[in-house]
Amino acid sequence: MHYNPGTAFISTGVGHCIVGLLVPKLRTPLLEIISAGVINSVVKVHPLTGEPTFDRSNSFWFQFGGVVMVAMGRLMQLYLRDVNGEEDVVRGKEVVKASECLPEEVGWWFLGIGVGGGLMLPVSGFWLLVPQGLYVVWRARQHNKAKSA
Questions:
Q1: Are 53 and 43 in contact (CB under 8 A)?
Q2: What is the value of pTM for the model shown?
Q3: Where are the bilayer-spanning segments (predicted)?
Q4: pLDDT tens per residue, range 23-65
Q5: Which are the contacts of 113, defined by CB distance < 8 A and separation ≥ 6?
């Protein structure tokens, strides 16, 4: 079985959503959104009490972030399966599979987001993007080097 960066990113997104359901400060506002009927339930000021409801916004955006990661991971899988029409390259005894290579730029984005977010929020899942980004950059460079050899 080969490592697939899309599958890894889907796992990161699913994990993100699970954390949002397990942490009470994120779960409770999410349940409030659901019990309020979902539609127009994420508001800055509660219409009856006048109290701010940033906890609902935080919960919503936390879960939404996880869903976006799942969608991006799926796009990566589709790219690797369908769009990446390059041929596999043999390099010594190793086959550098084109189906495992995302564009190098994707890896740099992951690294930038992971390091930048991790520095601003050290106790977070941002650091999970760093090894994923390093892998994408490494694999793309390995494929490009083998192609040009």
A1: yes
A2: 0.78
A3: 108-138
A4: 999 999 999 999 989 998 888 687 788 887 789 999 999 999 9
A5: 126, 129, 133
